[in-house]
Amino acid sequence: MDGSTLQEIAMRTAAGLPAVTHTFPFGPEHDVFKVAGTVFLMATEAPGEQIVTLKCEPPHGSALRQEFATITPGYHMNKTHWLSVAAGPGITEQLVAELVLSAYALVLEGLPAPRRRLVTGATGG
Q: What pLDDT score was predicted for residue 88?
């Protein structure tokens, strides 16, 4: 898989999730995906390569960075809570989709209950 395919898979997965918006707040070269106004995925180009940057739980991100050479701390983001993924050995369509779903769920779980209910439709009890 090359960088273009990596980004295509990530963006297609993100776009198919409930209440996701696709914006360009940092310019046309930065695809930003949000749920309820909160970023969970960005697709852009780091120096010389196409990447996706995703929200991630710190222990999971650390394990992924140890396992995959092309998963690094988040490019221009908080290095603890974000990771960047470039094409490389072991980076599969399934892994990319799982990382997007995990980032989405992580952000959704962190939303205040009223904003989360707007996405899930759940009523507080």
A: 95
